């Protein structure tokens, strides 16, 4: 009699569940041929799955500095930004590790006597995650972790522009005890993503990236009738009312427009400012933008790193030039920076545009670069109308001291994320994330809501 193992990726391995089943001779029940591993990530108790994520969080925390440096090298963001993202990812791992003990269903009263009804969550099976380059470890984590804790297997395709951080995350999860085959990383471009989306065993796709690709992903998922979650563009406004602390408001726009080099779908790209303070506000914003230090993200004291590649940096300055010829005023920046060491990379000066009108392309289309367009508004109502006058609806900020305007804004702005006196970007992991209109499709990411996308609900009726 022997104990047999699983063969996974060329290695004989025991079951993660520690459970086995027997194989017996049908001609002689007393003849035990051998025991075999009972393998299933989904069958492992969810809090035990959580232990793997907790362990991974500790490993990532211990390697935070090295991985942050790699992130700055592959993506360009400044070292403090990269450290922040690694810290956020540690929190994501811990948060979803804890969700293992909170995969709640409900108990619902029946209208019949002695009938007990409850709901249970089950994993979907294999799910796909297609992630962008701008948050190269946090987004892979915030898609994979809720999928894994729910008991799914994941096929992750990170962006080919920043594939290393996702690889580090996978290494850490495997080291933490994730069984072979539960997380799979496939590198490549659209071809690899397309193959995942088209695969008959993949039951759901979570995608963050461009609107064009998102549309194709949704079409393919629709044809196969599998779940889809899309996070795409934004044209996020920050409204500045005349009663706001203008210095603070300029700081909020500065952070949201130029942080991560403007390469966030949550970045503020439109500052919609009450006309009576537009000049004073613009002056403050321009002074702050000019004072920002642009350079390689590994250097000390850098505020703004490079754009992801040359084509992207060129596109940013081309769009700024187009806005200028349409009548906008370039108040700061507007050009590539090429002096000295900057000539080796793809740097764009933090750019502020004045006199931007709603018809201009710069007021309607995402730039994904360090560009803030200042648009004057007559009053709160006009500012709100301008803010809503775009295809997108991801994040939106209002800077004001008026509680009434803040609450009206929260109710009437067409956006999934609403900020009052806070930057439109820089979200937390434990609350729902996502937008409306062309920005997002499907259920929310992050927070407890993320679990909904990766589980299917069973309704159980029991007569007793
Ligand atoms: C943030 O602003 O903290 O791709 C996160 C993006 C978004 C994430 C933004 N999905 O930029």
Q: Name the average pLDDT.
A: 96
Number of beta strands: 25
Unreliable residue stretches: none
- Proportion in helices: 25-40%
Order the strands across the largest sheet as they lie in space: 15-18-19-14-13-21-22
The shape is: globular
Structure ligands = 2-aminohexanedioic acid
Q: How many alpha or pi helices? A: 13
Number of domains: 3
Mind describing the biggest β-sheet? 7 strands, mixed
Beta strand %: 25-35%
Oligomer: single chain
At the first level of CATH, the class of the largest domain is: Alpha Beta
Q: Do you know the CATH architecture of the largest domain? A: 3-Layer(aba) Sandwich
CATH superfamily of the largest domain: Aldehyde Dehydrogenase, Chain A, domain 1
- Give the end-to-end Cα distance, rounded to a whole number of Å: 44 Å
- Would you tell me which CATH topology of the largest domain applies? Aldehyde Dehydrogenase, Chain A, domain 1
Q: Whole-number radius of gyration? A: 25 Å
Going by helix content, strand content and strand pairing, the class is: alpha/beta
In short:
The protein is α/β, with parallel strands linked by helices and 464 residues long.
How does this structure look, described?
- This protein is of the alpha/beta class.
- The protein folds into three domains: about 1-35, no CATH class; about 45-230 and about 440-464, Aldehyde Dehydrogenase, Chain A, domain 1 (3-Layer(aba) Sandwich); about 235-430, Aldehyde Dehydrogenase, Chain A, domain 2 (3-Layer(aba) Sandwich).
- The chain has 13 helices and 25 strands.
- The chain has helices at about 45-60, 65-75, 80-100, 140-150, 165-175, 190-200, 210-225, 245-260, 280-290, 310-325, 380-390, 405-410, 450-455; strands at about 1-5, 5-10, 10-15, 20-25, 30-40, 105-110, 115-125, 125-130, 155, 185, 200-210, 225-230, 235-240, 270-275, 330, 335, 345-350, 350-355, 370-375, 390-395, 395-400, 415-420, 435, 440, 455-464.
- Strand 2 (about 5-10) and strand 3 (about 10-15) form a beta hairpin.
- The model has no long low-confidence stretch (mean pLDDT about 95).
- The structure holds 2-aminohexanedioic acid.
């Amino acid at each position: 009699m022997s104990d047999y193992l699983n063969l996974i990726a060329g290695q004989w391995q025991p079951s993660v569940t520690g459970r086995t089943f027997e194989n017996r001779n049908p001609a002689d029940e007393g003849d035990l041929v051998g025991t075999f591993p009972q393998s299933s990530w989904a069958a492992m108790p969810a809090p035990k799955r959580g232990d793997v994520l907790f362990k991974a969080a500790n490993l990532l925390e211990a390697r935070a500095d090295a991985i942050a440096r790699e992130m700055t090298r592959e993506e360009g963001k400044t070292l403090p930004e990269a450290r922040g993202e690694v810290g956020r990812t540690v929190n994501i791992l811990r948060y979803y590790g804890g969700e293992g003990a909170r995969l709640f269903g409900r108990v619902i009263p029946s209208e019949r006597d002695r009938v007990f009804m409850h709901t249970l969550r089950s994993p979907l099976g294999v799910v796909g995650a297609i992630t962008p380059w701008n948050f190269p470890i946090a987004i892979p984590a915030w898609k994979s972790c809720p999928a894994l804790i729910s008991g799914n297997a994941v096929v992750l395709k990170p962006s080919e522009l920043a594939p290393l951080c996702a690889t580090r995350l996978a290494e850490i999860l495997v080291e933490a005890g994730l069984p072979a085959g539960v997380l799979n990383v496939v590198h490549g471009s659209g071809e690899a993503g397309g193959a995942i989306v088209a695969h008959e065993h993949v039951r759901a796709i979570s995608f963050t990236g461009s609107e064009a690709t998102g549309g194709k992903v949704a079409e393919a998922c629709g044809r196969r009738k599998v779940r889809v979650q899309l996070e795409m563009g934004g044209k996020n406004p920050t409204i500045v009312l005349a009663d706001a602390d203008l210095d603070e408001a300029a700081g909020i726009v500065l952070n949201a427009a130029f942080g991560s080099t403007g390469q966030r779908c949550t970045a503020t790209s439109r500052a919609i400012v009450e006309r009576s303070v537009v000049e004073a506000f613009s002056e403050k914003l321009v002074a702050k933008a000019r004072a920002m230090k642009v350079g390689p993200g590994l250097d000390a004291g850098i505020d703004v790193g490079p754009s992801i590649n040359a084509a992207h940096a060129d596109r940013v300055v081309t769009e700024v030039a187009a806005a200028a010829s349409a009548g906008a005023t370039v108040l700061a920046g507007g050009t590539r920076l090429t002096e000295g060491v900057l000539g080796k990379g793809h740097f764009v000066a933090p750019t502020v545009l004045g006199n931007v009108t709603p018809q201009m392309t710069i007021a309607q289309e995402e730039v994904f670069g360090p560009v803030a367009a200042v648009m004057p508004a007559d009053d709160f109502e006009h500012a709100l109308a301008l803010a809503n006058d775009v295809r997108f609806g991801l994040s939106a900020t209002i800077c004001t001291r008026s509680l009434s305007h803040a609450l009206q804004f929260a109710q009437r702005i067409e956006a999934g994320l609403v900020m009052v006196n806070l930057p439109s970007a820089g979200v937390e992991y434990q609350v729902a994330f996502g937008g409306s209109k062309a920005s997002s499709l499907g259920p929310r990411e992050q927070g407890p809501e993320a679990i909904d996308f990766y589980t299917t609900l069973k309704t159980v009726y029991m007569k007793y």
